[in-house]
Amino acid sequence: MNTSNSNRLSFGHILRRLLQFVRPYRIGFIVAMLLLIAKLVMDVGFATVQQLFVDTITSADMSALLRLTMICGIACLLILVCLMLQHYFRFVVHFRMIWELRANLFDKSNRLPFRTLQSMHSGDLSSRNNKDAEKAMSMLESVVFDLAYNILLCLVSFLYLARMDVWIALLALGSGPVVFLSGRFFDRRLRVLSVDILTKEGELRGLLQEILQGMKVVRAFGLEGPLLERYVERREQLNILQRRRTILSGLLWQSSAFVNSTVMVACAALISYSALQGNTTSGGVLAFVILMGRVQWPFVHMSQTWGGVQDALGAADRVFAVLDMPSENDARTVEKTTPREMTEKDHSKVTQKCSSMPSRDQTALSIQNVYFKHRSVDGGESLLFKGINLHIEPGETVALVGPSGSGKSTLVRLCCGLYEPDEGSVSLFGSSLHEQLEETRALTTYVPQNPYLFSGTIRDNIAFSSDGASEEDIREVARLAGAEEFISKLPEGYNTILGEHGSTLSGGQRQRLAIARAFLRQAPLLLLDEATSALDNESEELVQQSLDLLMQGRTTLVIAHRLSTVRNASRIIVLDQGEIVEEGTHEALMVQEGMYAKLYSLQFQENTGEEEVEFVS
Amino acid sequence: MNKMENHKKNNPTASETLKQLISLGKPYWGRYFILCIIVAVLSLTSVALAESLRRIINATVDGNMSGLVSGGIFAVAVVVVEGAGNFAKTYLSGMLEFKSVAKLQASVLSKLMKVQMEDVEQYHSADLISRINDSAPAAQTGINEKTIDMFGNILKMVFMLTYLLSLQYMLTLGTILICALIPLIMVPFTRKLRAMHEARQQVATEQQTFIQDAIQGAEVVRSFSLATKLKEQFLNRAKDHLRIHLRVTRLEAVGYNLPFAVILGGLLYVLSFGGYLVIKGNLDVGAVAAFLISFEQISQPVARLSSLWTELQSSMAQSNRLFNILDLEEEGKGITPQSQDYNPVFSDGFPSIIFEQVGFRYGEGANVLKGLSFEIARGKVTAFAGPSGSGKSTILNLLMSTYQPNEGMIYCGDTSLRDIHPKDWRKGIAYVSQDPYLFTGTLFENIAWGRSGATREDVMSAARAAGIHDFIMTTPQHYETHIGERGLTLSGGERQRMSIARAFVREPSLLILDEPTAALDSHNEELVQQALKELMHERTTVVVAHRLSTIRDADLIYYLEDGAVVESGTHNELMTLEGKYTDMVSKSMDKGTLHSQREEVGA
User: Which residues form the ABC transporter domain (chain B) (predicted)?
Assistant: First the structure.
């Protein structure tokens, strides 16, 4: 989670990586940089122009004054246009780069191993994508535009100044680095503080998210008071951090401004003194004073900007910490074509090919000697699977039974690559999930217990995983999943926009949408966390029929809740504490009188004979 | 969605927004005053600095050594005062900002916890978060920083101009005229800019919504290999965002650079017109030079002023989004909630609840409940059954007072539910839902949320009663074990038992169960069912379920269809009726759910 401290990247490294985001927009970027010259002209040129004016005035040349005014007026207009263009290009490029960074971060967060994601709070991750990405990118802005410009300004002014009096110019220039370096005292603290503040902000976002998403529980249990208190308390912690930052950066700013002003006054006094000695004219003194500010100011500004850069570095630490995490398929030996260039079309091609291929000769699912540890949020570990083996032949329907915590859901998640085994391997239809994650995963359809719906239309929620799905396809699968009826009752039908996580639908309706999704996917291996539990009786019946249809011709691994599933399964696997304790058909297992029989009788204690009757009727 | 309509409805004028914005600053007038004084002093120091430079230059021109020294000392003093003043200002305004923003954010959050559920559900949580995290600070700094800054810069300008007037009125008058051009050019932009800022924020929020959804849907995203497609969608959305951003930036490019026009124009004016006057013999060169230096000083406040104006527009756009929330109506309007521990309804036993001709619809939709009348008897278990969409969950919403009926009345004893503040009402309620909602934190905390002041013993005995204690003891840190976001690292059954323990700790008078076992497998259901039985013992309980095992033992079952009670009675009565309920039961038999089997035997 908080990898920030162990993961402090060097300034150069971060700058290089951020600069990569410039590449697509380099033209705009370069234009913006070039246009900065207009600003340079304005800042430096003015001293010259002033001197020109003063000299013209002194020589009392009215027509020359008029000419000069005209030229300068036109120059001013040009500069102004350049400044506007510069602003435009600069912020457009900046904006694009932020979004590019965000897109990368977003993509990364979608490719992180599920387990990594479970150990982070989604609020923190969202916060990184929002605030941190923007702040990190601001570094490029500060460094390239502000720092580079100020160094340039500083140099030009120095050259100009040196023409008048080398020693004083050197004094002004020499004191600059003092200003700058004295500010570096704050760097490390500012950067650490920045990470702390952003982490806190992420944490706060997580808290807010939980309060808002759990509003019903908050209200029902009257948690408004305590939760608000908790928020205020955490917010206060953030305030303390922010106060520290204000003091630090306030000291940084004011100390450098103060040193600057002192040096400036001292230099003014010196040049005046030299004027008193008759070495300089009064016009010269004027120009010098103005210019000296220009030599000095950049240093002050740089020093302050550098403080801001520390802030950005802190944000970059947090952003790159995520970007540098291994992706799901990083550990795997994947050819370069995946996953970026592999489009959804390819996926469906793979799917098509696989569902039609005569896979009789290959084992549909093979789990070989898999070890798996659960890691808790606190960092504790508990070994769940200790060398588990499971092979499912094509066309089989295997039911998974076992007490709570025996690892049923984990096993199913291992099968679609949500979890990666610590040891051993999982392969589907002969291809290893470990080596070709995306392609192999395309062979599976996983229907989890709590179906997740996105905000968006019902149509999108059904069709999101299949690009080429036609309107008919969507209606067909909705019908198969028993969702057609309630969808047609909605005012906007398939275009109805669902609330957050599908909150506007009932649990049963959500599940039916999830099943419709599964129908559309047409993958040969079905992984089912028996998903009809939240359905009412009528729709359950409907869905059950469609699930049977869905299982037809497919290989199915199902966490069974229902007797009919157990009985119709070609094989039952009984899991206990991560181990397969029994295996076989319902009848065979009943004869064994082991765990299955116990589980079974526990649930049918009063009824051993009557169940037969039920099935007949 | 509805929020878009809200948007259009709620488009207050600039002055209204500004007024509301200023009202945010009310508690801080004292600090503002101090800050204003500091700012005023600081604006004086810039004049003083100009004056000291003038003295130094004059001393140089006159060849006056002592003048030079005194000028130098004066300048250093000014610089010290300025530095100290600036630090004080930064610190004070920083403190003020953090404090006031935190307070505003807390008040928005507290408001959100008070407004009608109906209104909250209109917004995506990411949208609300963005309003708290982005809009609130923008609005508050708009009033704190931006207005004070504006005041300071106007003051600076006035001081500078007065000073310049004293130097040379002809040159100054022209300068003032040029400065006056800024608002003339800026104001027409303003309206457009603000609307665009608001649109941009809206798009940005939608993007955050998208991101949050994708991250929380990680399981689906991975198992359906959606990453590539999501990135594509993300970039498409970013394009929309970019379009608005381009328009804003175009305006801002002009807005931010206008002051340079003024500064350049002003300098040009001073140089050329001043030069003209000098050549005419009305002015000496030294005066022009001094004027120029002072003019440099004026350029800074001028530049700052107009960029502040642009920033203020953004703040106002953001505060609009904030006030949309702050203006929402609160629950239990007109009823004052009682003090923390006051519990009027439940003090002498919990009375029966009576629904009288209750009608309800969501928003403008069709009627969900149609003149519903029934009684929930004290100390008994009342169950609701029926097909999905029959209004079962709506009844629970009404019972929890998260929604109010459109027609009819709900009585608790003799008191109408309308006359009890929802907060007071809910003090006696515990709610267990199908998908239990846990918070990040320790296991202990999550149970203790049930009742404020719950002791360790309370929590532990609740955990035991809910059958989760043994599980908790197998975790590495027992009750202090941290669970991740929403407790998703626990299994469904463990989560549900946690939420039942939370209900136990609450010691509710009214227990509301919304399909508590629907998402569980049979083994877990067994465990949960036992825990629930314990919890329901001698408590007024309302349960919605379609699992026979959950409702079979109820004292009274209402079978609902289309928002009306079709049948009612005990399980056995209803079964002998051979009506819809019997149909439902026999259908669930056919499916052969492990449980219905067992239940059937008892019947």
Answer: 353-587
